[in-house]
Specification:
The complex is a heterodimer of chains A (261) and B (265).
Chain A (H helix, E strand, L loop, with lengths): L2 H26 L7 H14 L1 H31 L3 H16 L6 H8 L3 H25 L3 H9 L4 H38 L5 H10 L3 H29 L18
Helix pairs in contact in A: 2-10, 3-6, 3-8, 3-9, 4-6, 5-6, 6-8, 7-8, 8-9, 8-10, 9-10
Chain B lengths: L4 E12 L9 E12 L3 E5 L6 H8 L7 E6 L2 E2 L16 E4 L11 H11 L5 H13 L15 H13 L5 E5 L7 H18 L2 E6 L2 H7 L2 E5 L6 E6 L17 H11 L2
Parallel strand pairs in B: 3-8, 3-9, 6-7, 7-8
Antiparallel strand pairs in B: 1-2, 1-4, 4-5, 9-10
Classes of the chains: A mainly alpha (261), B alpha/beta (265).
The complex binds adenosine-5'-diphosphate and magnesium ion.
Magnesium ion binds next to α1 of chain B.
Chain lengths: 261, 265
């Protein structure tokens, strides 16, 4: 398939979705489902006033901090536990439990603990991202070819070098599978926390629009969220591609842990 | 060549727990003894599954013996349990594994330099040495290629010189040329002998090919089926440098081949 063919195919799908949306709006009534064009106009309006950027910035900030606070420890922990099998055995049931826990149920608790400011949003995102990244990274660390480890020890590599130059590169596809799954959840988590209680952010914008029966504002905010998720995904994929330039083809590792909200 | 044995294996045994865990552990190697002199090229022939890789793993200290001792320069290096294993014995034992163990995310040259980097010895001299070895095995021009972009023979060459580059006194090689076509194989054997004659490392070379064992070695050891021990030892008095492409024509070849074949079951 050529590049152009793929672009044309995507354009066709977008056109079909827009047509379906327009049709839905006409059937359900523009009050319930605003048509694409008014939504785009509403978004444009909010862009002109800068309103959408303020809210998007807030949401992005909460997502990014949560992503880092959850992602970095989630990525580092498997490397530490690899050297401490007893601690891993102790922690494992708790990590599995934490992964299985519906994090949304924690949102009210986080608001109680951290207030309605950005901290409670960051906490929710952190709790979602941490487990997703942890379990994917752990799978990657386990998947290391044991012969590469033996070879590295024989040639005199120390444990730190083995972790950074042998296990890490081999686990990168898994770690990024975790990042890729986490990205929409990080943004979605922040949005949902804002829905529950906030006076800023895209989630707040959705909530406000719904309260004022301004469905086109609701849709515009959702559209903005979707665009941000797509953009964030592209960034993650771009970084992964750079790190995986050595790979024969652009195959991606299977996702081993997903969901978790 | 001195007569001091560099490496001595005495009464070596290895057993693995049986699959079901109920029946007794199975001895793969039992009462296996031999010694290797400094600078000697020893080939080891044995049927598939006779524990050849297991033997090298124990010598390289990536696996612990269940019985017996291994001594290096007269000092025992294994203590029977797996706790004190020192893989590679502080870089004194190089190991060219049976399968490809190049790091797929490193280019050829970075793979070859990996041991020097890991040992903190990567300097201009090391780079020169790596370049010379790359040249000696015909890998010049492929420095920036990733392993998946190389042919099987090139990967074997890269793995070989990755071990040669840091100059360990003993090199273990586990059927390194097993999966290659005949032409590539002879070329690699020639490369190996040339490098060996230049540096006179001590080499223990595993093969299941009798002709290869004769062509390369000063001495060939024949292994029995499991539980494995040594059932034959043959001094190969074909003078060096040898012509590997015509090794069959050497007057000693036929009788050595027959003698070894009779022992390899
Ligand atoms: N880690 C292991 N656990 C259990 N059995 C093993 C293990 N490694 C090797 N073996 C067994 O030991 C025997 C010898 O294996 P190996 O040393 O690989 O033979 P060779 O290299 O001569 O073909 C085989 O029967 C194999 O199943
Ligand atoms: Mg083997």
């Amino acid at each position: 398939m050529t590049r152009w063919q793929s672009i044309i195919d995507k354009a066709l799908v977008i056109a079909a979705v827009l047509a379906l949306w327009q049709w839905g709006s006409m059937t359900a009534g523009a009050y319930w489902v605003p048509a694409p064009w008014p939504v785009v106009l509403a978004l444009w309006d909010m862009m002109r006033t800068g309103e959408i950027f303020r809210h998007a910035g807030y949401t992005l900030q909460a997502s990014l901090w949560g992503f880092l606070l959850g992602g970095i420890p989630g990525m580092a922990l498997p490397f530490v536990l690899r050297r401490l099998p007893r601690l891993e055995a102790i922690l494992d049931p708790f990590l599995v439990g934490g992964y299985g826990l519906p994090k949304l149920a924690l949102a009210p608790l986080f608001i109680l603990w951290f207030g309605i400011g950005i901290e409670s949003k960051i906490a929710l995102v952190t709790s979602v991202v941490f487990f997703l990244v942890y379990f994917n990274t752990a799978a990657g660390v386990r998947a290391i070819d044991p012969r590469l480890l033996l070879m590295s020890r024989v040639i005199g590599a120390g444990e730190l070098r083995i972790a950074t130059q042998v296990i890490w590169p081999s686990a990168v596809p898994f770690i990024f599978a975790g990042f890729r799954v986490s990205t929409p959840y990080a943004i979605g988590g922040a949005v949902i926390a804002e829905l529950i209680s906030s006076n800023r952010g895209l989630g707040y914008l959705v909530q406000l629009g719904a309260m004022n029966f301004k469905t086109s504002q609701v849709f515009a905010a959702i559209l903005a969220i979707t665009l941000i998720v797509i953009g964030a995904n592209a960034v993650v994929n771009g970084i992964e591609r750079r790190l995986l330039r050595w790979r024969p083809s652009s195959k991606t590792a299977g996702t081993t842990a997903s969901g978790g909200m | 060549m001195s007569e001091v044995s560099l490496l001595e294996v005495a009464g070596l045994g290895k057993r693995f727990p049986s699959r079901d865990g109920r029946s007794d552990a199975r001895w793969v190697i039992q009462n296996l003894s031999f010694s290797v002199r400094d600078g000697e090229f020893v080939t080891v022939i044995g049927p598939s599954g006779s524990g050849k890789s297991t033997l090298l793993n124990m010598i390289a200290q990536t696996d612990a013996p269940s019985a017996g001792t291994i001594s290096f320069k007269g000092a025992p290096v294994s203590n029977g349990d797996g706790a004190g294993l020192r893989p590679g014995l502080d870089c004194q034992i190089g190991y060219v594994f049976q399968d490809d163990t190049l790091l797929p995310w490193r280019t050829t040259i970075d793979n070859v330099l990996f041991p020097l980097e890991a040992q903190g010895r990567l300097d201009a001299h090391g780079r020169e040495r790596a370049a010379a070895l790359m040249d000696a095995v015909g890998l010049t021009g492929f420095e920036r290629y990733y392993p998946h972009e190389l042919s099987g023979g090139m990967r074997k060459r890269a793995a070989l010189i990755r071990t040669l580059v840091y100059d360990p006194p003993i090199i273990l090689m586990d059927e390194p040329f097993g999966a290659l076509d005949a032409q590539t194989r002879v070329q690699l054997q020639e490369d190996l002998l040339r490098l060996w004659e230049a540096g006179r490392k001590t080499i223990i070379f595993i093969t299941h090919d009798i002709a290869e064992a004769i062509a390369l070695g000063d001495r060939a050891l024949v292994l029995s089926r499991a539980p494995t021990h040594i059932i034959g030892e043959h001094h190969i008095d074909i003078p060096r440098p040898r012509n590997l492409r015509d090794i069959y024509a050497a007057p000693q070849f036929a009788s050595l081949y027959e003698a070894i074949r009779a022992q390899v079951q």
